[in-house]
Amino acid sequence: MTLTPTTAPVRVGFLGAGLIATYHSKSLRRSGAAVSRAGVYDPHAERAAAFAAASGHTVYPSEDAVIADCDAVYICTWTNEHARLLAKAVAAGRHVFCEKPLAFTTAEALQMAQAAQAAGVTHQVGLVLRRSPAYLWAKHLIDEPAAGRVMTVVFRDDQFIPIQGHYASTWRADRSLVGAGTLLEHSIHDVDMLRYLVGDVRRLSAHTENFHGHDGIEDVATALLRFADGATGTLTSVWHDNLARPSLRRVEVFCERRHIVIEGDDWFGPVTWTDADGTAGSLADDALAAAVAPMRDGSDNPDGEFIRAIVEGRAATPDLFTAVEAHRIVDAIYASAAADGRALDVPAADLTTVT
Ligand SMILES: NC(=O)c1ccc[n+]([C@@H]2O[C@H](COP(=O)([O-])OP(=O)(O)OC[C@H]3O[C@@H](n4cnc5c(N)ncnc54)[C@H](O)[C@@H]3O)[C@@H](O)[C@H]2O)c1
Predict the structure, then answer these.
(1) Which of 82, 17, 86, 10 is nearest to 54 (CA)?
(2) Which of 17, 32, 81, 103 is least surrounded, with the fewest CB atoms within 10 Å of its CB?
(3) 283 Rama sector, left if φ>0, alpha if ψ -120 to 50, beta otherwise
(4) Are the beta carbons of 51 and 24 closer than 8 angstroms?
(5) Structural domains in the chain, sorted by start
(6) How far is CA 108 from CA 192, 306, 350, in A?
(7) Is the distance from CB of 227 to CB of 202 less than 8 angstroms?
């Protein structure tokens, strides 16, 4: 479907004025994208006021007022509101940036993606690791013929349960607002990166556990994965109480002739690798960013990409359909865990496109 270009500056509105809204607002400023700051609405009035004061947005009295007066809207509320707000925004013809997870289930996420597509708007999801230099470089190392095929991957993601510390949120312990625990709320990023690095997951078996006892909020999820191309892998996701550890990932990829590790910072590595011929390398920080610069379609800034896509009248990446693919695997992990780890095939999503 051809999209209609929007004249810059793009008028941007925000629904939700919390942690991630603030991140996107600052990131928009850093990107240098041509935007004008329109409305922000958050039922938490103090948050909306603080966000407006810091960003140059204006506090509006309702969701509808924000949607009415913008070209593009960021949906940065807790998860149970995403689908309802997205439906309103695309019905009004607004371009949408929606935070992950899109929804509680694949079926609802798919409806959202199809509604955005049918409305002919640019849509993007907050699966921001798609623009991380560390993951881009790891993907490059995996794809080089010298590496051989991916044999197996070990993906570990741990953070303190984010109802404390700098998250300062309580809604992440309320299943009616967040949907589930560490896997859906946090590790949907990891599932997306496993698909990006290795490929689609065909079959899996999984367990979840709930140590904290918040109803429906698992704080451990472990999955054994079989990828479509024959590789295997494990995903371990945990929400603990160790505030001395910030959010940390460690990803280890064994190819036939190359071993790759992503650790440290999600964005700036280091990424280290060792080859069968004894050569080894490590890249981090500015050197890592410089190495991936030629591989990027523009920049490492997800918000700049969103605005550019709107102005150019084209699709953005990652779009909502990318999120639907990750939701499929998340749902299958929960289904296996509910069946005490029974192995099951990951069903294909019906990504029938609307033209
Ligand atoms: N992409 C990422 O890396 C990333 C990181 C953190 C959070 N998130 C996602 O972003 C979303 C928000 O998380 P957060 O950490 O910013 O939470 P937060 O608690 O800091 O902010 C959420 C805000 O949404 C507001 N809100 C609720 N319903 C609303 C509505 N109908 N209209 C307008 N505002 C409404 C709340 O009052 C709250 O201020 C969640 O879906 C979360 O999973 C993504």
Answers:
(1) 17
(2) 32
(3) beta
(4) no
(5) 10-128+306-316 (3.40.50.720), 129-298+329-335 (3.30.360.10)
(6) 18, 23, 12
(7) yes
Query: Which ranges constitute the DSSP H helices of 60-217?
Result: 63-68, 82-91, 106-119, 133-143, 175-178, 188-197
CA–centroid distance, residue 174 to ligand 1 (Å): 13
Pocket test for ligand 1, best of 19, 51, 249 (most atoms within 8 A of CB): 19
* Residue to mutate, 27, 66, 78, 84, ligand 1, most ligand atoms under 8 Å from C-beta: 78
Looking at residue 246, its amino acid is P
Cα–Cα distance between 303 and 71 in angstroms, integer?
14
Question: Amino acid letter at 156?
Answer: R
Q: Is the CB of 179 under 6 A from ligand 1?
A: no
Residues 70/12, Cβ–Cβ less than 8 Å: yes
CA atoms within 13 A on the CB side of 280: 6
**Three-state secondary-structure class, residue 246:** coil
- Report whether pLDDT(354) > 50: no
Is 196 in a helix, a strand, or coil?
A: helix
Whether the CB-CB separation of 244 and 236 falls below 8 Å is answered with no
User: Ligand 1, closest atom to CA 44?
Assistant: 37
Going through 161-285 in order, the beta strands assigned E by DSSP cover 201-209, 220-227, 232-240, 248-255, 258-265, 269-275, 280-283
For 143-193, the pLDDT digits (tens) are: 999 999 999 999 999 999 999 877 778 999 999 999 999 999 999 999 999
Question: What is the pLDDT confidence band of residue 355, given thresholds at 50, 70 and 90?
Answer: very low
C-beta of 30 in contact with ligand 1 (< 6 A): no
Q: Which DSSP state fits 186?
A: I
